[in-house]
Amino acid sequence: MAAPVWAQATFDTKAKFAVLMDHETGTVIFQKDADLPMEPASMAKLMTIAVVFDQIRTGRLSFSDEFFVSEHAWRTGGASSGGSTMFAELNSKISVENLIRSVIIQSGNDAAIILAEGIAGSEASFAAMMNELAEDIGLTGSYFTNPTGLPDPDMRVTARDLADLARYLIREYPQYYHYFSEPDMEWNGIKQGNRNSLVELGIGVDGLKTGHTEAAGYGSVISTKEGGRRLIGVIHGLTSMSQRAEEGRKLITWGARAFERVAAYADGAIVAYASVYGGESGSVGLIGNGEVALYLPRGSRKCLSAEVQYNAPLRPPVLAGDQIAELRVFCDDRLVQVAPLYAAETVLEGGITRKAADALRQLALGWL
């Protein structure tokens, strides 16, 4: 979905690629070349963590499992490699939980390889698992070749995909999200701080991951709940760590402060009705998932309009709680938010008379 024009006109960034997304709805507030391929650097480790969390959820892996530190992991991702490292000792064993913490906090390349080898036997086999999960999530512009994000000409992501991946991690694994905001980790007598410097800046950022290579520049995936809602930001292609921190701070702070929360519909309130073809009722009420709260550009209430959009005609059965529509909010014809809407009640298939009447109405409206 394209970012709101209003947002595009009132914010800019030095990043080559950027996205700011509302976590709850997936609405993109700001974007800059969000669908162009880019080198992920260590931000690819978010997909590594997604695979690991998926393995834990399905019971194929536990936090207490221990994996062996191979010579490949030690040489490729260890201290002698010159990259981000956990300083894992050759031929030692490390628990899955500590490997997860290292990947997230220290960006340990050795930790990522150890996890990949422990789960799939090799980096290549693990990369196949990464791509399979990426497809399930809907990351259509990404392809992974290793668990570390170390340079590979075939590996690519998009800023939008990284935001969607972060949204997936936050939504599906809230019980593990605390790892992303841990300030530091010590291993093998060496203490390292969280590489996401915004976590310690006091602006509400609580994740997720930074990345850097010489070719790609500096980037980060960040998130905050400041301003009353969770936002996810992605920036990449910057020239220094300080520029990455400043542009990330600017993006996430603008998103949190430039919008105000408006309680539009109470919990259970009917927002609109959608037509049902051939149902025992000719329409179904549409409600939000709890209160429908809109986040609108400050000072924009006089410009507002809205529409309900769904794929008509709906056909029974329509089950209570099904997401079947969305509320699209505009400011002077510029899209500013999308909110999902759900069926307020169940509508089952109707009788012959009901079907015939609906068929005539549908035809009159040009839906058939």
UniProtKB/TrEMBL annotation:
Pathway in which this enzyme or protein is active: Cell wall biogenesis; peptidoglycan biosynthesis
InterPro entries for this protein: Beta-lactam/transpept-like (IPR012338), Peniciliin-bd_prot_C_sf (IPR015956), Peptidase_S11 (IPR018044), Peptidase_S11_C (IPR012907), Peptidase_S11_C_sf (IPR037167), Peptidase_S11_N (IPR001967)
Top EC class, one word: hydrolase
Domain named Peptidase S11 D-Ala-D-Ala carboxypeptidase A C-terminal: residues: 259-349
Binding site for substrate: 209
Presence of the UniProt keyword Signal in the record: yes
GO BP terms: cell wall organization; peptidoglycan biosynthetic process; proteolysis; regulation of cell shape
EC code(s) of this entry: 3.4.16.4
The organism's place on the tree of life at top rank: Bacteria
Coiled coil region boundaries: none
Keywords carried by this UniProt record: Carboxypeptidase, Cell shape, Cell wall biogenesis/degradation, Hydrolase, Peptidoglycan synthesis, Protease, Signal
Catalytically driven reaction(s): Preferential cleavage: (Ac)2-L-Lys-D-Ala-|-D-Ala. Also transpeptidation of peptidyl-alanyl moieties that are N-acyl substituents of D-alanine
GO MF assignments: serine-type D-Ala-D-Ala carboxypeptidase activity
Active-site annotation: 42 (acyl-ester intermediate), 45 (proton acceptor), 107
Family: Belongs to the peptidase S11 family.
Biological role: Removes C-terminal D-alanyl residues from sugar-peptide cell wall precursors.
Family annotation (PANTHER family): D-ALANYL-D-ALANINE CARBOXYPEPTIDASE, TRAFFICKING PROTEIN PARTICLE COMPLEX SUBUNIT 12
Name this protein carries in UniProt: serine-type D-Ala-D-Ala carboxypeptidase
Taxonomic lineage of the native organism: Bacteria, Pseudomonadati, Pseudomonadota, Alphaproteobacteria, Hyphomicrobiales
